[in-house]
Each structure stands twice: as structure tokens, then as C-alpha cells.
Structures
1.
Amino acid sequence: MATSGVDYMRERAVAFQALRKRLTARYFVPGMALFLIAIAGSLLAIPESVQIVVFLVGFILMTVGAIKYRCPSCDRTPRDGDGIDFNPKSCGNCGAILRWPNEV
């Protein structure tokens, strides 16, 4: 049985939200934690070379996460003005629904 257009849009929105949660857990949260550790390194008496490595690893994690963060319809990063929209209702590029109304 063929799926209706509404079912297809809902499936895409659910798939995007699953991707968003996965990328947040794997890349964005650890990347931000490493950024904070690198910034607070002087207070924690961490050597400068270690601070630089921690900062670079955090930067790489955030960059990889942003590269993988794509709209399932147009395969482009959802944008909100000048930046990336991390929980968009719809894609700013193609208009695809990325967050179903009853879901977070």
C-alpha cells in the first residue's frame, strides 16, 4: 500500500528529529564540553599544549556534526538567517517539514 503525502512528510520529520538527537549526543554535546574544558584550562592548571589539542578536538567534533546535519529532502543544512537552525520547524532551503507539530 502506498503511503500518503502526510505520512511521508511525518516520516521525514521523524527521521530528521532522530538524526538531530543522534548528532547532538555524538558531536555537539562532547564538542561543547571540550570547548569549555579548553577555555577553563587556565583555571584547572591544564598545560597550554593540552588546551590547544582539546580545543581542536572540540572544533573538529562540532564541524563534523554540522557537516552531517542535513535536511532529508534537499540534503542541505537547515538555516535560520545567517546560522544553522538546530530545531527547525521546516527547512529554510526547500520548505520541508522537519518537526511534526505533536513532537519535540
2.
Amino acid sequence: MFLPEILKERKGELMPTYAMLMKWTEQGAKTLKDAPRRLEQATKAYEASGGKVLGYWVTMGEYDILAIGEIPSEEAAAAFALGLSAQGNVTTTTFRMYTPEEFAKLVKMLP
């Protein structure tokens, strides 16, 4: 499923949406055969923290994984990213995503 399709399916009150870009560390690359299990465990941990994984993709290029998810708060997103990085298999870059409607609300707040 492509990202625009995922965002179209969202209904009701939305949790903040985050994208996480990940790169394998040397340790993660050496144990790559175990990566599918780790991705499954990470999904369960994200859901246990109140989040919902909208999708993840293994990618080619500068980053190795792209994950998109909703999670209740900035603190929960930060705690998840820190915990994932602390395991030593990936480094993460996380950023908040805004729908066009959310962006329009932000723009209306400008002076």
C-alpha cells in the first residue's frame, strides 16, 4: 500500500503521525538475517506504547527502512526511537508529519 492510500484511509480523531528513517548499524548489518523478527518485535513494541504502525518498507539508497505510524504523543515517539536505537541495530531519524488539513490549521494560526 502506498503512503497516500494509507493517509486516505484514516478516519476520526487522529493521533500525531511520524515517519522514521532507519539505517542499519554495523551490528544490524552483521545480523541481517534476524531483521524480519526484529521488525516484527518493533511493531509490537510500537503498538504496546499506544501507537499504530501504518506501514514500513525496506528501502534502497541512503536509508534502509522507512516506517510510518501514529503514536499518542511526542514523548512516546521519542521514547520509542531511543529504545530502538539503544538496541544497537539501527540508527533513527524521526520527524512529525502533517496532513494537508493539519497544515492548513497551522497556517491559520499565523499572525
3.
Amino acid sequence: MPRRRRADMRRGYRAYAQAEKLHPEYSAICAGVGAVHFHQGEFAEAVRAYERAVRIDANIAEYHCELAQVYLTEGLIPKPWNS
């Protein structure tokens, strides 16, 4: 990842982390934290953040999809087409 992109991701994460402290009940913030972790390859942290977003608001399909994407990336869900 280019240096500028890494710096942008760190700034994005800091902004989300600050917002999460102020509004821990906002599922969109948790999902944003998950996205930053996912794009940095920090999959365990991404799972935790997306799971929190789902717990807060299970009616948002996007959170379930993003969580599933992390699971697939980590090989936690078998890909039937690879069987």
C-alpha cells in the first residue's frame, strides 16, 4: 500500500475511533471502523467491529455482507465453488 494511502487510512481510523468514543451506539461508525481494519488487512479487528455493528443494528444488510466478506477472506466460511 502506498505511503500516502497508509497515512490516509490511519487518519480515517483515528477519526472513526474518536467518533466511536463519542457515539458507541452508532452502528455506522462501527462499520466504518471495520472497513478501515479490513482494508489494512487487520481481519480480526474488522470482524470485531462488524460484529458490533450487527449487534447494534441487525437490520442493516450491508453490515452482514461486509462481515461475510471478512469471513470469506479469512477462510472462515468454506467456498462451495472451491470444493
